[in-house]
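USER: For my understanding, would you kindly supply a protein sequence with its structure tokens?

ASSISTANT:
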Amino acid sequence: MSVGKGCQRPRFFVFLCFFVVVLCVRGISNQTPGRVSKAVEQVGCGFSRGSSVYRTIDINHGARRLTVAEGQSVFEALKGEGIFLPSVCGGRGLCGRCRLRVFNGDWPITPAEQRKCTADELTEGIRLGCQLPVNADVSIEIPEELFATKQFRGTIEAISNLTHDIKHLRIRLSEPERIEFTPGQHIELAVPVYAGSPKPVSRAYSLASTPGCDRGIELMIRFVPGGIASTWVFTVLKVGDELSFNGPYGSFGLSRSDREMIWVAGGSGMSPFWSMIRHMKQIGLGRECTYFFGAVQRRDLFLLDEFRRLEDELDWFSFVPALSAPAAEDNWSGQTGLITEVLERRTIGENCEAYLCGSPGMIGAAVKVLRSHGITEDRTFYDEFE
């Protein structure tokens, strides 16, 4: 009896397998042909894992190869792997900063790319990472320094007023505890949802601290009426609050030459130069340097005493502040006029290098003056505000 039951088991399992196969075939036949073919198309050269289809992103000719899921942009896919493309709009196609070069594929050019990239750039394969969907294997190129960008968390350690509309923030890093950067680089500060913004955004700010700062960074943030980030900083952010940022980004910074330098800035354009001058002092780098700093009235100037002390200590450094519209009560005896006008009145050697930080209008005007003094494009470096 027991032998007979044992002989019946194979028949039972054959029947069970046949029943399962019939159900699967029936399920597939119930799908519309379009859905089945679309599913096959999506797999393409990728591969599936569970219900997801995965693609390969080759970065910088094999320097990194990522396997990422479809259904996201290249910008989001890189971010998920700890590679942060510059962006102050959160990957919404508004800022045009998440540029990369694409070597293969045929992705339609989006309206955002038409606005932010020139025709020549698009022809050369320059695209916006936030506009490229992950729907095929792709080979891209990004600046090498982006491999060093990280996500940081920290706590506001101090907030102080530099002027009536510029605040100085000191942020204590917690994860990771240290950041490596060169003077002139910037970070992108994450601004969470608050009453003034229904969506999280990020904004770029130059680092005002020096690379030797222990477990912290400094920022100088100017209030922009209606600005999402600056309104948050001025009205919401307080000592003890936690925040996050990523970086560092940018190639603005001191060259390796020993040429005399001309620095030009105004307002919070002070940040990178405050980092540079202190770093130069710390490492004993003495290069002839004149810093032209523009403001409207006396109340818009800051760090005057600190720069006067640096002038006394460093025989290679000169500081030239100027007011474009001094008030009567300012009792101002220094330079007057737009900072580019002050620059034009000075004798500038054609062998100098120029470093500019400020608005597009200021930088454009300064470049004209510098060209008239013989300073060529390859010796002009600038950090332009949005």
User: Anything to note?
Assistant: The first helix runs from residue 2 to 29.
